[in-house]
Design a protein that fits this description.
The protein has about 110 residues and is of the alpha+beta class. Helix content is about 30%, strand content about 25%. It has a 5-stranded antiparallel β-sheet with strand order 4-3-2-1-8, covered by helices on one side. The chain is globular, with a radius of gyration of 13 Å. About 25% of the residues are buried.
Length: about 110
């Protein structure tokens, strides 16, 4: 069984994009220094997409990694992707690649 704690951005690493900073180990998202609240599943989805930014991450892989011990419908995935989009605001950071999955498309910087 693969848990989100076992994979991801990297221990102690922070990802930044636009006005956001994502601290994976701390499970924290900040926008201009202000905490952005998302649920744990939405955070895990964002972490998966950031881990492979610029690449298409298939729906099946996202479902398997974020809900490893559950059978979940794609509707739940869409719900949490929409929650991330809403939390991140106006920027177009996550795109749906029809029939294939999702991709985080904004440039990212990895900080130690």
């Amino acid at each position: 069984m693969m848990l989100m704690a076992d994979v991801g951005i990297g221990t102690g690493e922070v990802i930044s994009f636009g006005p956001f900073r994502v601290d994976r180990p701390g499970r924290l998202i900040e926008r201009n220094g202000q905490v952005v609240h998302v649920g744990s599943r939405a955070f895990d989805l964002l972490a998966c997409l950031l881990e492979r930014s610029g690449q298409i991450v298939g729906k099946a892989e996202l479902l398997r990694r974020v809900w490893p011990d559950s059978i979940v419908e794609e509707g739940s995935l869409r719900f949490h992707i929409n929650a991330i989009r809403k939390a991140l605001g106006e920027g177009r950071y996550i795109v749906n690649i029809s029939g294939r999955g999702y991709s985080f498309v904004a440039p990212v910087s990895r900080l130690p």
